[in-house]
């Protein structure tokens, strides 16, 4: 069985989660100089962890999320991320020349909490030839991510631990509804690199509030400014809003794919609804200078809530 091309291509960008040494591909394994070895699973993902991973999304949650994405209900958000990625340095959007294509092909896109890899695949479509790294704790999710795009390397890893990437190796970080270890984002981003962070607004899925007990934390914006802003420069905020026409089965899946699924109210039956999608897309930039020190272990910055 051959090694997935994205893993072979990105091996030199990675570092050992045990000793922080560089990794190289040897047969179907990633190996460091201390001989710590990490095998590529037959499903296409590799686990880069010290010990057991935190509990990630289970197969049922992943299946619900995949169905919702495949139905196109979050397509406006994927398009917004792809457009923002195309406008970042080296994206080459609208230029169409050989230099632009070459710059895009050399780019590395890291998706933290990537899940099924749906949004990352959309971004990679906007950056032909770029390498995508999907990082998540959920093996069922990463089985989807490994198949979501030919240029995705799927990695099981903990966002709260030091990320298994070398310093200054990533051009673009995606963080969509995921925990935010801002210090590690800053460490792995190249000078002048970009982080796209998506958080829900109080209006997101508001029409389904009678079905669960989950609400958007009003301190989320302040916490994002304080934590990520301590490591990266805020470059912009964009509201992304859209409408989803959901039948009863779609509503059930939207609940199952999110934390709301664990806080369902008893005695309330899902029914068809017109539901609001409402998020903010924040753009952060890494200072255009080198020499940022690596962190070991990670300087944790935010709980992602």
Automatic annotation (TrEMBL):
Q: In its UniProt record, which GO terms are filed under biological process?
A: methylation
Ranges of residues in domain Methyltransferase? 109-193
What residues does the 23S rRNA (guanine(745)-N(1))-methyltransferase N-terminal domain cover? 15-49
Any coiled-coil ranges, and where? none
Q: Keyword Transmembrane helix, does the record have it?
A: no
Is-annotated flag, keyword Iron? Answer: no
Superkingdom as given in the UniProt entry: Bacteria
Q: Which UniProt keywords apply?
A: Methyltransferase, Transferase
Which GO MF term does the entry hold, naming one?
Answer: methyltransferase activity
Q: Which SUPFAM superfamilies match?
A: S-adenosyl-L-methionine-dependent methyltransferases
* Protein name per its UniProtKB record: Methyltransferase domain-containing protein
Native source species: Solirubrobacter deserti
């Amino acid at each position: 069985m051959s090694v997935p091309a994205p893993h072979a291509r990105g091996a030199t960008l990675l570092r050992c989660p045990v000793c922080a040494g560089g990794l190289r591909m040897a047969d179907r394994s990633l190996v460091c100089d201390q001989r710590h070895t990490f095998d590529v699973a037959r499903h296409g993902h590799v686990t880069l962890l010290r010990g057991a991973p935190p509990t990630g999304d289970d197969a049922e949650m992943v299946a619900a999320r995949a169905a919702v994405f495949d139905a196109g209900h979050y397509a406006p958000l994927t398009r917004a991320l792809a457009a923002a990625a195309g406008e970042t340095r080296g994206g080459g959007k609208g230029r169409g020349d050989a230099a632009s294509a070459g710059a895009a092909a050399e780019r590395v896109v890291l998706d933290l909490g990537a899940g099924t890899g749906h949004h990352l695949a959309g971004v990679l479509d906007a950056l032909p030839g770029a390498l995508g790294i999907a990082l998540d704790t959920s093996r069922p999710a990463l089985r989807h991510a490994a198949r979501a795009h030919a240029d995705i390397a799927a990695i099981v890893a903990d966002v709260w631990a030091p990320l298994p990437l070398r310093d200054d190796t990533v051009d673009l970080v995606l963080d969509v509804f995921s925990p935010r270890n801002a210090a590690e984002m800053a460490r792995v981003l190249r000078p002048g690199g970009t982080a796209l962070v998506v958080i829900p607004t109080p209006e997101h899925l508001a029409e389904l509030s009678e079905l669960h007990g989950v609400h958007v934390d009003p301190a989320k914006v302040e916490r994002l400014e304080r934590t990520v802003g301590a490591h990266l420069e805020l470059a912009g905020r964009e509201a992304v809003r859209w409408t989803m026409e959901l039948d009863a089965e779609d509503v059930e899946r939207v609940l199952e794919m999110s934390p709301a699924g664990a806080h369902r109210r008893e005695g309330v039956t899902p029914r068809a609804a017109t539901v609001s999608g409402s998020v903010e897309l924040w753009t952060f930039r890494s200072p255009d200078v080198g020499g940022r020190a690596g962190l070991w272990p990670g300087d944790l910055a935010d709980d992602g809530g």
